[in-house]
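Review this:
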Amino acid sequence: MEKNLYPDFAICDSGLGGYPFYKALKERLPDASIVYVSDTENFPYGNKSYGEIVDLSLAFISKVEKQYYPKNMIIACNTISITAGQMILGTFQYWNNIILTLPPIKQAVSISQNKRIGLLATNATIESQLIQNFINFHSDEYAIIPRADSNLISFIQNNYRGSTLEERMEAIKPAVKFFKSTGCDVVILGCTHFLNLKDEFIKSSENAFKVIDSMENVINLAVRIYNREKKN
């Protein structure tokens, strides 16, 4: 980790997933100081147990805090946010703001026509109590059809940089085929790694389903926080 004390934001993820957040926030706030930190030593988080994810997440965020002392934190990882988010919020209460990244299920419900919603995520996110509660509690209103795809996450982390469009389209083919076959008209990219391939997902969907994620909501909140802090 490179020294850059007291940045406006630290954006954290287990790997490359949060980098689209960094680019988007830098475009919106070119004067803001932003650091991007990834815990590649313990990647991937999505195949680990609940206890492992909580322990690793708290240690990771504590390390970021001691290295950078950021004013605000963006947890650009659905797995960390869903599994350890409440523990992080309770442990690091003295920070100005901690922004979590959660799958935009309510948004998906609002735009779905047939109430069949795909969720592409990690094993840990899909198996989490939060997501299972959503699936079970609302099963009479709509269907959330999950797919864990650790192979695609691994491809993005290890092979995305330098890959060709053809290789990227081939990598997402199993997921796209799955959601088309299950009749989903909206697919949530519930792991930030997948944002690196959002354009490819949209192209490959051939309008069979809409592709959404939570990045815009997170970035909009971060911009509001930054502007409010600059006024004070």
